């Protein structure tokens, strides 16, 4: 196999996906390529992925490499950090089998992950899953004890301008199938008019569907400048000690933001903000709720998420995967029915029209004359 194309390179796959164009080679340093990252690469229609790290480490069955392979995107795996650091954006690379050439000079090699190799590695992942689950449970319990103040009132809630009292709140996270799920609940958004909260890149998903987020919550590492400028309120998720790296980006854009120091994930505090400010119902879309979700985010437990969901209780509806429940298909019989229904009033109006009546009579006369001959 031989592929020659310009590269785009970044340590963060989600940032790289924004710059990729059709035919590029993506150069990443991403251990255990997750589903969301893989889908973002697929959408750009690239030719190949060169990964400095291991795309499937064996810890858990991550779906990213399988998604790329099914879209016929070559994966050259584990080429090493030395190759990654030697490259720069715009370099023209040539991949020949498992070797990488820059200006006809061999600079490195890796392992080609074809479908068979991926399935072999995923099988080993499934065999290791029970060990990973054991560690995940222990970590969750340990941190739940430390973070229980998260739901016991020890956390000082920031002052929020957005009005939640007795309203529905929709929290959109850039998680698995988030775009498909969002398109499925459009009618709900149109009818109920919930408060729209975008968690980092989830805010851009709302913008893509024509909705301006009422609030953006997160560390501001994946939301676009355009979305930040258009949204109505920004809440920067800070570390518990008050450090808020994302605040600088917001201020550099000339925007104001509320800082919320808290443990846990940004989606946790987004739901907590809605709950504490009197939301009647909280609909979560694209959120992370199981072990694989959290391992893909690089988290070894889910203490804060467990605690927040425990507190919110019946007010929370998880819409993740709702697009799988019902997939509407337009059937031929419905099209024929619609055409007949539309044609029926036209025929009635035409029949009652004097010019049409005269035309019909004229045709009847011509038919009689033809029959007589």
From TrEMBL:
Residues 193-234 form the Thiamin pyrophosphokinase catalytic domain. The chain crosses the membrane at residues 334-353. Residues 320-371 form the SteA-like C-terminal domain. One of its GO terms (biological process) is thiamine diphosphate biosynthetic process. It holds the Pfam family TPK_catalytic. Signal peptide: none annotated. The keyword Transmembrane applies. This is Uncharacterized protein. It comes from Alkalithermobacter paradoxus.
């Amino acid at each position: 196999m031989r592929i020659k194309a310009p590269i785009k390179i970044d340590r963060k796959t989600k940032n790289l996906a924004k710059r990729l164009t059709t035919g590029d080679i993506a150069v990443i340093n991403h251990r255990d390529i997750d589903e969301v990252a893989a889908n973002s690469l697929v959408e750009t229609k690239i030719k190949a992925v060169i990964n400095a790290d291991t795309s499937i480490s064996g810890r858990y069955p991550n779906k990213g490499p399988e998604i790329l392979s099914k879209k016929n995107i070559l994966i050259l795996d584990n080429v090493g950090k030395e190759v990654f650091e030697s490259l720069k954006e715009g370099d023209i690379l040539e991949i020949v089998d498992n070797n990488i050439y820059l200006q006809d000079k061999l600079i490195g090699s890796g392992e080609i992950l074809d479908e068979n190799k991926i399935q072999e590695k995923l099988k080993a992942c499934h065999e290791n899953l029970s060990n990973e689950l054991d560690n995940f449970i222990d970590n969750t319990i340990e941190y739940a004890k430390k973070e229980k103040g998260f739901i016991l009132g020890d956390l000082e809630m920031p002052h929020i301008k957005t009005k939640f009292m007795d309203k529905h709140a929709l929290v959109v996270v850039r998680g698995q199938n988030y775009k498909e799920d969002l398109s499925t609940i459009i009618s709900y958004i149109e009818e109920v008019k919930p408060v729209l909260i975008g968690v980092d890149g989830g805010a851009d998903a709302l913008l893509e569907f024509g909705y301006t987020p009422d609030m953006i919550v997160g560390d501001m590492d994946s939301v676009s400048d355009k979305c930040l400028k258009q949204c109505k309120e920004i809440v920067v998720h800070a570390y518990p000690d008050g450090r808020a790296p994302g605040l600088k980006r917001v201020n550099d854009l000339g925007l104001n933001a509320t800082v919320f120091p808290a443990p846990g994930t940004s989606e946790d505090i987004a739901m907590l903000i809605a709950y504490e400010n009197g939301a009647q119902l909280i609909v979560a879309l694209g959120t992370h709720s199981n072990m694989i979700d959290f391992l893909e985010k690089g988290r070894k437990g889910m203490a804060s998420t467990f605690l927040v969901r425990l507190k919110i209780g019946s007010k929370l509806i998880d819409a993740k995967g709702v697009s799988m429940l019902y997939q509407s298909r337009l059937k031929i019989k419905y099209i024929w029915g619609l055409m007949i229904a539309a044609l029926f009033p036209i025929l009635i109006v035409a029949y009652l029209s004097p010019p049409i009546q005269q035309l019909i009579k004229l045709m009847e006369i011509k038919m009689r004359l033809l029959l007589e001959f």
